[in-house]
Structures are given as structure tokens and as C-alpha cells.
Design goal:
This protein is mainly alpha-helical. 70% of the residues lie in helices and 0% in strands. The protein has one domain. The chain is built from 15 helices and no strands.
């Protein structure tokens, strides 16, 4: 796409997003909430695209390339968001009394099913080449794999709904919902979070092989500032801080960050209409997490959030000259569908993904977030050899 055409297209899409935000903001309270969700989704899409924020890619860069910057950005995002959540939750619930949980926070049941679902999700990340949130922003970059990964994710959600009742009755119904401030208090939870994150940062630096690109100085003028904002990859620390702040701000004004509620709702609505699902999904709608209700409205908060994410990442990719679509190969299709299927089943069964369960969960002080972090990491590492074999086949 010619540069002038790219800039024109970026301006049109950005203008449409802005008009949508302003139009919704002029409506009633429900519309204003949608407006804020659209704005937050757009900001999240820009941050993800410019910082290249992806749980799989950052981990792979460290394991295979010895570059710790991406993993450090994830750890920074977890630390900043955890601190922000303590301020928000502490204002709403000054004393973390037993039996009370912060409103809407993603604090899920902890069980072997959660660990298995997270492992499957990590395996799917490795096979498809991205987590779900990264596939969404890579739609805006023209990725040939992401459309098939998202189709596979929808199919995986349907499979998750079909297996839910069996897993719920056997394990999940008796699984504890553990909120760490009940046991450690706010200060103890935040201190423990910082300690674990510091240990993980030290481990990442231990495996660093000094492959980070050298810093090049540019004269401080308008052109260099524009290049840093719209073309160059944002520094890892900036990306991590931005994600952490956005997570806390979203929880304060709208709800916890998450990217699978709309995908799951679409899958549940379609499968239910086709008569594939059981009459009752036991206990599903009583848990915290990325809710997957039957669609009853054209617009939902998570739906407009994802719309903003994809649209804004498309604008950011155009401005950076990183919109590079190509015809998908058979490997792209297979990797996307297979990895998406695993991610969809894992996200449905775990009640969220790396954003909804891991990021928002750890920020909220949920033990379920930490279980998802380590189990999905194990699945990711197990899937790296499979990905290399698929690439060389």
C-alpha cells in the first residue's frame, strides 16, 4: 500500500473510531460505558502494536534468542497493575474480610482443571504463534495466521462448553476460590507479588545473552519524536507500564481487562442456536472471569473494546509501515486452527486467557492468575519444539 494511501486509510479509520467514541459518549449511561470501552480498547490496541506486547513472542525471544526485554515488560505490567489494583480495591473494600471479594475482579476457582486448561492454552500459543490478544492486534497488521487462529478459538470455545459440565461436576464445583488478601492482607499480597516478579526478572536476566539492539541516539526534534511514537518499537518498560496502568484504569471505570468474553459469547450463542449445547451449563455463569453469556444485545462492552483494539492496531500498523498482508500458506492455516482450538478450549475452561485470567487475575491478587501463569508457561515451552517441527515440515 502506497504511503499516501496508508496515511489516508489510517486517518479514516482513526476518525471513525473517534466519531464512535463521541457518538456513544453523547448517549445515556449505558452508551457512555460503551464509549469508554471503545476508547480503552483503542488505547490497548495501540499499546499492544507499538510495544509488540505478546506473551508468547516475549517468552520465545528469551528462550530462543536470549532477549529478556519482552519478558521484563510483562513483569513490569504485572507489577504496575498489581499496585494500581491495590489502590482501587483498597478504596472499595478497605478491609479484605473473609467471604467478601472485590466487585467483578477476575478471581477464579483453583484446581487441576485450571492448570490443564492453562497448559493447553500455552500449547496453543506456541503452535499458533501468538496469544489471543496478540492475534487480535495482528489482524490489524494483516497476519495470515490470525484469522484462522481466531476461527479455531471460536471452535475451541464450543468444545469447552461441551466438556464443561463433566469437568464442573467432577472437579470445578468443589475447587476453592482463593483471593490472596484474605490470607496475606493487601500489603502482604503486594509484597509477595513484587518478590515473585523480582525472582522471575532475575531468572530472565540470568538467561539473557546480551542480544538487545544497541541504543542509537537521534537529534531531539519533531521528526525524531514522531519516529519514536509511530514507527519505532516502544521500549519494553514503556509498554509494560502502559499495560499495567491501563489495566487498573479499566478496572476502576469499566471492568477488568479481558479479550475473550465477546468471542466466547458469540460461540455460545451460535452453538446454542444450533442446538449443540446442553440445556444447562452448571455453575458457569456464577464464576468470576470473562463472562460468556448468550448475546442479547448488538453491542457489548467487550465487543466494542475488541473493535477498538483491532481498529486502532490497524491504524498504528499503517502509520508504522507494518501493515503487511500476504496470502496464507497451508502451514499458516493448520497452525492457526490447531493452536486456536487449544487456546479456545483452554480459555473457556479457565474462564479467560493471558489477559483475563493471568494479567487481570494477578493484578487482583487471585491465586488463579499465578496458576495460569506457570501452567501456560509450561505449555508454551512444551509447544516450542512442535512449532519448530511444523515450520520445517
Amino acid at each position: 500500500m502506497a504511503r499516501s494511501a496508508s496515511l489516508l486509510t489510517a486517518g479514516i479509520v482513526a476518525g471513525a473510531i473517534l466519531l464512535g467514541i463521541l457518538h456513544l459518549a453523547a448517549g445515556d449511561a449505558a452508551s457512555r460505558s460503551l464509549s469508554l470501552s471503545l476508547a480503552l480498547g483503542a488505547v490497548f490496541g495501540v499499546v499492544l502494536q507499538r510495544a509488540r506486547f505478546c506473551f508468547f513472542c516475549h517468552t520465545r525471544d528469551l528462550v530462543e534468542g536470549g532477549d529478556p526485554r519482552g519478558v521484563l515488560s510483562i513483569l513490569i505490567a504485572l507489577a504496575v497493575g498489581a499496585a494500581g489494583y491495590v489502590l482501587v480495591v483498597g478504596a472499595w473494600l478497605p478491609v479484605p474480610l473473609p467471604g467478601r471479594l472485590p466487585p467483578d475482579a477476575h478471581i477464579g476457582p483453583v484446581s487441576v482443571v485450571l492448570a490443564g486448561a492453562a497448559f493447553a492454552f500455552g500449547l496453543g500459543m506456541a503452535i499458533s504463534g501468538s496469544c489471543i490478544s496478540a492475534h487480535l492486534y495482528r489482524l490489524g497488521e494483516g497476519s495470515p495466521t490470525s484469522p484462522f487462529a481466531l476461527i479455531g478459538t471460536i471452535a475451541g470455545f464450543v468444545l469447552g462448553f461441551l466438556t464443561w459440565n463433566t469437568l464442573y461436576l467432577a472437579v470445578i464445583s468443589n475447587a476453592p476460590v482463593v483471593w490472596l488478601p484474605h490470607h496475606l492482607g493487601y500489603a502482604g499480597t503486594l509484597g509477595a507479588t513484587f518478590l515473585v516478579l523480582a525472582l522471575l526478572a532475575a531468572l530472565a536476566l540470568r538467561f539473557s545473552r546480551g542480544t538487545a539492539e544497541p541504543v542509537t541516539s537521534r537529534p531531539l526534534d519533531l521528526r525524531s519524536v514522531a519516529h519514536a511514537l509511530f514507527v519505532a518499537r516502544w521500549p519494553a518498560a514503556i509498554g509494560g507500564i502502559a499495560v499495567g496502568v491501563l489495566s487498573a484504569a479499566s478496572y476502576l471505570r469499566v471492568g477488568p481487562l479481558g479479550v475473550t468474553a465477546e468471542i466466547g459469547s458469540l460461540a455460545r450463542t451460535a452453538a446454542n442456536a444450533a442446538g449443540w449445547l446442553p440445556d444447562t451449563l452448571h455453575g458457569l455463569d456464577t464464576f468470576r472471569g470473562c463472562a460468556t453469556a448468550i448475546q442479547t444485545a448488538l453491542l457489548s462492552e467487550n465487543g466494542v473494546f475488541i473493535t477498538g483494539l483491532v481498529g486502532a492496531s490497524f491504524v498504528a500498523a499503517l502509520l508504522a509501515g507494518q501493515f503487511a498482508p500476504r496470502r496464507p500458506t497451508g502451514k499458516d492455516v493448520v497452525a492457526g486452527l490447531a493452536g486456536g482450538l487449544l487456546m479456545g478450549w483452554g480459555a473457556m475452561t479457565a474462564l479467560g486467557c493471558t489477559v483475563g485470567v493471568l494479567l487481570s487475575g494477578i493484578h487482583a491478587g487471585a491465586l488463579s492468575g499465578w496458576v495460569f501463569l506457570f501452567a501456560s508457561g509450561a505449555g508454551l515451552l512444551a509447544g516450542l519444539p512442535l512449532r519448530r517441527r511444523l515450520a520445517s515440515a
